[in-house]
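Appendix B, example 12.
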Amino acid sequence: MAVTLSPPALAEKASRLVAASERQSFDPFTDVDWSVPLDDSAYYLPPEFLPLYGTAAWAAMTEEERIAYSRHEVAALCSAGIWFENILMHLVLRHLYDLPADDGSHRYLLIETADECRHSAMFGELIRQAGTPAYQVSPLLRRLGNFLKATSRGPESYIAILAAEELLDISNRATMKDDRVHPTSRRIAQIHVLEEARHMSFARTYIAEVWPTLSRFQRLVAMIRAPFIVRGVADALVNPAVYETLGIEDGYRQARKNPVHRERVIRDLGRLTGLLEGIGVINRFTRPVWRALGLVAAVPAPGPS
C-alpha cells in the first residue's frame, strides 16, 4: 500500500497543535482532586443532558433519585468514552503505521494517542470511585467497534472520531460550566474539552484536505458506511444496564424514544453533519438515510436568503 503523506495544510495544522499541547496538557491523577467524595450531593451531568430528562419516568423520580441516576449515567458515559477512545486510538495508530517519522503529522498523532490514553485512565478512575457498575456498551456495539477498527481508514476513520468527540464535547462544555454539577465531574469535563479541541481541529482539517483526493469508489464506500458508524456512536449514549441496575421500569425504552434526547443528538452532531454536507458526504441521495437513522433534521435548515 502506498503511503499517503500529510498535505501541507494538514502538516501546518499538526505543527500548531503540537505547540498547543506543549502549552497545555493535563495529568488526570494530579490535575483532578480525587479526594472529593463522589457522593450524591450534586448532579454529575446537567439534568437536561440526561437521556430520561422530560419523560414520564423522569417526572416520577424524586430529586435524590435523579441525582443518583445522573451518577450512574456519567459512569456509563465514561465507559462509552473508554470504548470510543480505544477505537479512536486504533484508528489513529493505523494512520501512524503508514507514516514516516518525518511526516508533518507524525508527532502530533503520537500526542493525540497519549491524550486518549490519559482520558481513558481518567474515565476509569471516575467509574471506580463512583461506586457504580463498570457499564460496558452492548455486545453488538462492541462487535461493530471491532469491525470498524479492522476496516476503516482515511477520512471515514476521522468521521467516526469526530462523531464521538463532537457528541461528548457538547455535553462536556455544558457540564464544566454548570454549578449544579459535582466539582469532580466539572473538572473532568473541562480537561476533556481543552484537549479534545485539538483532536477535533485536526480531524476536521484532515477530512477537508484528504476527502477530495479519494477515488470515486473510496468516497462512495465512505458515504454508504458513514451514517451507520455515526448511529452506532450515538447509540452508545444510552445504556440499558443503567435502567436495569436502578430498577427504572421502562426506562431504557423511554430514554431511547425520548424526543428531547433525540433532538439533542441531532443538534449536537450539527457541526459534524454541517461539515459532511459541505464536502458532499451528506447529499440528496444519502440524506434520507441520515434522516431515517435520526442523525439530521427532517427538514434541512434554510440557507441564507
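The CA atoms of residues 177 and 186 lie 7 Å apart. Residues 63-97 form the longest helix (35 residues).
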